[in-house]
Amino acid sequence: MMRLELVKRPQRSALFSALSPFIAFALTIIAGAVLFALLGVNPLTAFRIYFIEPASQVWQLHELAIKAAPLILIAVGLSVCYKANIWNIGAEGQFVFGAIFGSAIPVLFPQFEGPLVLPLMLLLGMVGGAAYAAIPAFLKTRFNTNEILTSLMLVYVAQLFLDWLVRGPWRDPQGHGFPQTIQFGDSAVLPELMPDAGRANWGFVFALVAAVLVWILMSRMLKGFEVRVLGSSPRAGRFAGFGLNRMVFFAFLLSGALAGLAGISEVSGAIGQLQPVISPGYGFTAIIVAFLGRLNPLGIVAAGLVLALTYLGGEAVQSALGISDKVARVFQGMLLFFVLGCDTLIHYRIRLIGVALTKPKGAAQLEAAPKLKEAR
Amino acid sequence: MDIAVNILLTIATAATPLLIAAIGELVVERSGVLNLGVEGMMIMGAVGGFGAGHLTGSPWIGLLAAIAMGALFSLLFAVMTLSLATNQVATGLSLTLLGLGLSGMIGTSFVGQPGVRLPNLDIPVLTDIPVIGRLLFGQDPIFYISIALTAAVMWFLFKTRTGLTLRSIGDSHTSAHALGIKVIRYRYLSVIFGGACAGLAGGHLSLVYTPQWVENMSAGRGWIALALVVFASWRPWRVLAGAYIFGAVWIGQLHAQAFGIPVPSQMLSSLPYLATVVVLVLISRNKRLTMMNTPASLGQPFVPDR
Questions:
Q1: What was the pLDDT predicted at A194?
Q2: Concatenated DSSP letters of A65-123
Q3: How far apart are alpha carbons A267 and A202 in whole angstroms?
Q4: Could you tell me if B303 lies within 8 Å of chain A, comparing CB atoms?
Q5: Cβ distance of B36 and A156 shorter than 8 Å
Q6: A168 to chain B: which residues are within 8 Å by CB?
């Protein structure tokens, strides 16, 4: 019999803090190899198709950037929440509401054109996401309601609301009954960065800018310090005069606005119109991105690219090997598991202890004692 | 009268998976562990139950497979949070994400396949009694399990010594540990019990409620079960009441859609989720009451020192 025992380190290990995402990735690869073998595919072939081929040509790198942009934008915002120990897991809903708010301009005022359209759309998208995130923040601060459950429930509501919009009032009358809005006009479409090379649009630039700004906020400004203090010790934060309620609003509004920006960028850039489904679960995958990036905005950029690759790889193995593209979700889930597990190494040393199968004499006697008492 | 009976029967069918999953999670949370992976364990139970039933042709084997699948999947969470002391919120979330992905992958070949349904109870004379006959003696087997489970958990938590020990661990794992109680072992068993319950709830979805496999067929029920535990202030009989209220909301909106009420169907479909938010707000408004009822060490990792 073996047993795990955790021994607290005197201080956090800098080595494992840097290494743990890589160990986690390696473990995911090993588990993935087993998974592919179980599915009857040669793991080496599968990995080549999954991780290397989807990123081997320039246009594919553009696709990678398209998938990574929303993941990074959302995860950067979530990292602030999670650092502050505030659990916004409804980014998917904020993404949808950002997309809806921003799309209001091209859908309701298709004649409105010019250079003002896009900035207004992006701004409205951020407002929409932030407004939707304000609901769980308000309920938490005012009524002490658990934000995990409320923010998650609102995801379902947002998706149903979008479904109603595109099948009802916002449906394209000339769309042959398809549940979608009109195609956005030219001035409402997010421009591509290098149209000759691939489809990547400005959304990726927004993601990088957001990551740098939030990194500056978190590491160079008082607000970032406030986030970290309140996250690790709310009591200490109170003594320092930091308001927990204000922090809840700050974290939710910031992450909501970034998720909303991701939503409108996705719709205006990659899709070009509103549809019943506009996200393959970006809001949830971004949670994995945030943790894989160690809640550090710059780490999140790298993590976002890795997770974007898992999406592309999933599509690739589906078309090449006939494996369900759900394999991407499995990879993403496993990755998060291993990241969380490896994070234990930062704070603890793990000791394997062999437990003797035969009990030592003393223990046997101790156990026998109460039985004797009962017998009497 | 027949219509009323039918509506009551469908409410019971809708409430049963919520009740089972919530009762399981209640035990887990009473031991001080917050497992947000209910949705993931439930969907794994659903796909396992459907798969085993479909392949063997026996819904009973499906039922057992659903329970085993949920329990096995929860073990993953237990190892992570209890042996490796990881963050419970994040680990629970990852369990849900992994479960949704894994079930989708396993279930690819099950889409559109015919399923098997657990037969309803049918006792010759008793089931034929007008009105109460079908309500009391004509439902699916999991309904009876859910009621028995609620009663058993109530008795276990509040009438047995082991139940008392479990609750004490949930309120203070350090004190319990100091008294020589095997905190981690109790928690392992609780988490696995919760997983088995969530798996059974998932099995109900794919073996009774709609005997087929549809991706994401749990549709947020695992999260509603989590909310029910908070709503019930960690008391089993209130979970029972809450599950039936939510079952009624769920069925009510379906009936309203069928009757063609001039409200968009999407608005009606979002009612159960909105109701969850409203109920959570109402119940958590009283801060002192919530703090009194919440297991004090809920969600905090515990590493035994020696």
A1: 82
A2: HHHHHHHHHHHHHHHHHHHTT-----HHHHHHHHHHHHHHHHHH-TT--STTHHHHHHH
A3: 12
A4: yes
A5: no
A6: 264
Say what the pLDDT of residue A20 is: 84
Task: List the single residue in B108, B226, B267 with the smallest CB-CB distance to A164.
Answer: B267
Q: Which of B38, B216, B280, B290 to mutate against chain A (most A CBs within 10 Å)?
A: B280
Please give the model's pTM, rounded to 2 decimal places: 0.88
| Summary mean pLDDT of chain A | 86
Give contacts of A157 with chain B, Cβ < 8 Å. 270, 273-274
Inter-chain touch A153–B100, beta carbons under 8 Å: no
Cβ B208 vs Cβ B117: under 8 Å: yes
Helix orientation angle between A91-108 and A117-143, rounded to the nearest 10 degrees: 140
Q: Sketch the domain layout of chain A as residue ranges.
A: 2-357
Nearest to B84 among A143, A333, A344 (CB): A344
pLDDT at residue number A12: 81
Cβ separation of B84 and A284 shorter than 8 Å? no
Return the CATH architecture of domain B2-293.
Answer: Orthogonal Bundle (1.10)
Residue with tokens 């969380």: A340
CA distance A102 to chain B (A): 21
Answer whether A327 sits within 8 Å of B105, measured CB to CB. yes
CB of A91 less than 8 A from some CB of B: no
pLDDT beyond 50 at A361: no
**Chain A nearest C-alpha distance from B169 (Å):** 20
Using an 8 Å Cβ cutoff, are A243 and A180 in contact? no
Domain segments of chain B as ranges: 2-293
Cβ distance B243 to B221 under 8 Å? no
Tokens describing residue B284:
């958590």
Instruction: Specify the DSSP class assigned to residue B263.
Output: S
What class does CATH assign to A2-357? mainly alpha
User: How many Å apart are CA A290 and CA A215, to the nearest integer?
Assistant: 13
Q: Of A128, A165, A126, A134, whose CA–CA distance to A151 is shortest?
A: A134
- Of the candidates B85, B86, B105, which has its C-beta nearest A326's C-beta? B105
**How large a percentage of chain A has pLDDT more than 70?**
93
Alpha-carbon distance of B229 to B19, in angstroms, equals: 10
Instruction: Please give the torsion angle defined by the CA atoms of residues A344, A346, A352 and A355, in that order, rounded to the nearest 10 degrees.
Output: -60
Cβ contact A144–B220 (<8 Å)? no
Q: Rounded distance, CA B227 to CA B23, Å?
A: 12
Confirm or reject contact between A291 and chain B (CB < 8 A).
yes
A344 in B contact zone (CB under 8 Å)? yes
- A122 contacts: CB under 8 Å, gap ≥ 6: A102, A261, A264, A265, A268
Widest distance between CA atoms in chain A: 95
- Nearest CA to A264 out of A132, A135, A82 is that of A132
**pLDDT band at A372; cut points 50, 70, 90:** very low
